């Protein structure tokens, strides 16, 4: 049992874990309402993964083409392959325009049209008039939109006197006997010393889990830490079988080439010089939804029409746009391609192949950012004191497939919504609950486990095996036999992880210990992903089963919920009723 005075304690109204766009937008809302806010981040806040978002943020401003939020809502529901919850989607699309203008006023330097309005580019899966002509809905700051948003939100938080714990790693949530969340045990990376942060409310904004796959667009920090924490707290995670593969990663390396490259007029070619997307999506072509384009590229390569000596990629052509357009609209892409491929995209095409990109699933929440789980009456009840936003959460506005430009929108809309709901909660709960020491003991036991000495496998070896297994057994195309084999592989890695050992037991900046904690979270997320993918016997959005090629609305119009205890799955219905408009019923999804 812990000696209560052994670990220092800090107290706040709200603990925000993660300093990306979702965490910072919520923290700003709270700090401006004069709540005491602690933001814990394992990296300096402006190195959070939001900084990597390139293409833009969707809002029906109508600056370039006619637009309204209802069309945006239709495109998002259709893009989700009808698995998105329509009440949350309506809420997000209605709020979009106001929040983009709010970001502009907070200092985000959006690119401009000649008339001074915010520049908007075409993106995949966007239409006018419920599936008509291509819409230009994505508000962009060149090809560095996430970078611009994150820096602006960080500066506004500094102004609002938000308290930052930079380079602290959250080990586990503290939960009392009644199921309320009381904060978390965190580890100061610099000293290796634990700290208890006690909070009336805790918001998880820890990002996705793209590091599950060997080739991915994600930063090294995207290891599903928030998902691991809620699973260990007995809360399920939702829809983990739906993992988005971005169609245009740099072939063999994974770095992201924004969809904005195609939005500006770029297009894909196979080895015969054919614009093959015309066969897969005759109307939208290269601006079809991401899952459609990813499968098309994978099919071209599989059927022998890939480019290069190995025939293992296709080409993204932007050189016809001219050097001036590439420099003005895609400067970051040009720099990155020059750095990693030593070619100039304004003069020759870019080799691309689908790469793991975005987690559609995550911690189940409602549209207010409250983490929910099944109640005794069969409905959903909020977990007292716990909230989640951004890629680690599943609202679900993205359903089975996210549209490009909706992720930056998701973080600002639901970051604000969670901030507002937390303010209400704090008004009604003015005092801290009694601290639960057993919850602290569990976190400290995990910390002590990695101090065990002796022989054992290395964390790096197990992580590499996990990433290879996920890529091989749970990639763009899936079948029952392959998934079943993959599940056994990941379970075997979980068993071997119990005997893994660190070589370095120092405390100061021991990144090996942090990577060990991250691997535990990755394994849990991997088990959830493969288990849910094996169970879902249909193809929907990013989940493509060769043995079940059709979407099955009769049996599978439901969200999966994975529990760590026993690796069990349950399901809950999709919310098909919007807030104020008529629902969009499922129909064949063609572009």
Detail the poorly predicted runs: none
Largest sheet: 8 strands, mixed
Q: Percent helix among the residues? A: 25-40%
Reported CATH architecture of the domain at 438-573: Up-down Bundle
Chain-averaged pLDDT: 95
Q: Helix tally?
A: 16
Radius of gyration: 23 Å
Walk me through what this model shows.
- Among the domains are: 249-355, Flavocytochrome C3, Chain A, domain 1 (Alpha-Beta Complex); 438-573, Methane Monooxygenase Hydroxylase, Chain G, domain 1 (Up-down Bundle), CATH 1.20.58.
- The chain is of the alpha/beta class and 591 residues long.
- The strands form five sheets. Strands 1, 2, 6, 7, 8, 9, 16 and 17 form an eight-stranded mixed beta sheet that branches. Strands 11-14-13-12 form a four-stranded antiparallel beta sheet, covered by helices on one side. A three-stranded antiparallel beta sheet has the order 3-5-4, sandwiched between helices.
- α1 runs parallel beside α11, α2 (69-79) packs across α3 and α13 packs parallel to α15.
- Helices cover 34% and strands 20% of the residues.
- It has helices at 21-32, 69-79, 86-105, 145-159, 225-232, 260-263, 277-280, 290-302, 323-329, 331-341, 406-428, 437-449, 459-473, 480-497, 511-535, 553-556, and strands at residues 9-17, 37-41, 57-58, 120-127, 134-139, 163-166, 168-175, 181-188, 193-204, 237-238, 243-250, 267-269, 314-317, 350-359, 363-364, 370-374, 380-388, 393-394, 558-562, 569-573.
- The chain is built from 16 helices and 20 strands.
């Amino acid at each position: 049992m812990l000696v209560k005075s052994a670990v220092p304690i800090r107290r706040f109204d709200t603990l925000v874990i993660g300093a990306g766009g979702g965490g910072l937008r919520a923290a700003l809302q709270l700090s401006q309402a004069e709540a005491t806010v602690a933001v814990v981040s394992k990296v300096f806040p402006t190195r959070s993964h939001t900084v990597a978002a390139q293409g833009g943020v969707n809002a029906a401003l109508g600056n370039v083409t006619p637009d309204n939020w209802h069309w945006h809502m239709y495109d998002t529901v259709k893009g989700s392959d009808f698995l998105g919850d329509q009440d949350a989607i309506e809420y997000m699309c209605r709020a979009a325009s106001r929040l983009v203008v709010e970001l502009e006023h907070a200092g985000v330097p959006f690119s401009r049209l000649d008339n001074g309005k915010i520049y908007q580019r075409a993106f995949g899966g966007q239409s006018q008039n419920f599936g008509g002509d291509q819409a230009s809905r994505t508000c962009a700051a060149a090809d560095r939109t996430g970078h611009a948003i994150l820096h602006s939100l960080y500066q506004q938080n500094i102004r609002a006197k938000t308290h930052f714990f930079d380079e602290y790693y959250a080990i586990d949530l503290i939960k009392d006997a009644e199921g309320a969340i009381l904060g978390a045990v965190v580890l100061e990376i610099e000293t290796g010393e634990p700290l208890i942060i006690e909070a009336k409310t805790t918001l998880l904004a820890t990002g996705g889990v793209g590091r599950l796959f060997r080739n991915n667009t994600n930063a090294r920090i995207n290891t599903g830490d928030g998902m691991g924490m809620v699973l260990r707290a007995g809360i399920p995670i939702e829809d983990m079988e739906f993992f988005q593969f971005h169609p245009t990663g740099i072939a063999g390396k994974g770095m992201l080439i924004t969809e904005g490259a195609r939005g500006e007029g770029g297009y894909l070619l196979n080895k015969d010089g054919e614009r093959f997307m015309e066969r897969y999506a005759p109307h939208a072509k290269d601006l079809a939804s991401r899952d459609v384009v990813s499968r098309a590229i994978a099919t071209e390569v599989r059927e022998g029409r890939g480019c290069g000596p190995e025939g293992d990629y296709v080409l993204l052509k932007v050189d016809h746009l001219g050097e001036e357009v590439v420099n003005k609209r895609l400067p970051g892409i040009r720099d990155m391609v020059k750095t990693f491929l030593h070619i100039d995209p304004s003069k020759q095409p870019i080799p691309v192949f689908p790469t793991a990109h975005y987690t559609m699933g995550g911690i189940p929440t409602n549209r207010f950012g409250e983490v929910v789980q099944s109640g005794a009456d069969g409905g959903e009840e909020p977990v007292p004191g716990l909230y989640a936003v951004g890629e680690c959460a599943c609202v679900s506005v993205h359903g089975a497939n996210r549209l490009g430009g909706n992720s930056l929108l998701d973080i600002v809309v639901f970051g604000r919504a969670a901030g507002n709901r937390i303010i209400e909660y704090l008004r009604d709960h003015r005092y801290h609950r009694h601290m639960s020491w057993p919850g602290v003991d569990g976190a400290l036991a995990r910390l002590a486990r990695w101090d065990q000495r002796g022989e054992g496998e290395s964390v790096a070896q197990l992580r590499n095996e996990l990433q290879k297994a996920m890529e091989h057994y749970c990639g763009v195309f899936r079948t029952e036999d392959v998934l079943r084999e993959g599940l056994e592989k990941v379970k075997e890695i979980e068993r071997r992880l119990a005997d893994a050992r660190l070589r370095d037991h120092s405390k100061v900046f021991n990144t090996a210990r942090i990577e060990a904690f991250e691997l535990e979270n990755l394994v849990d997320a991997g088990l959830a992903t493969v288990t849910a993918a094996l169970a879902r016997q249909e193809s929907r959005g990013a989940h493509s089963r060769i043995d079940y090629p059709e979407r099955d609305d009769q049996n599978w119009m439901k969200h999966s919920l994975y529990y760590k205890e026993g690796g069990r799955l349950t399901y809950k219905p999709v919310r098909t009723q919007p807030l104020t408009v008529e629902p969009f019923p499922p129909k064949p999804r063609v572009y």
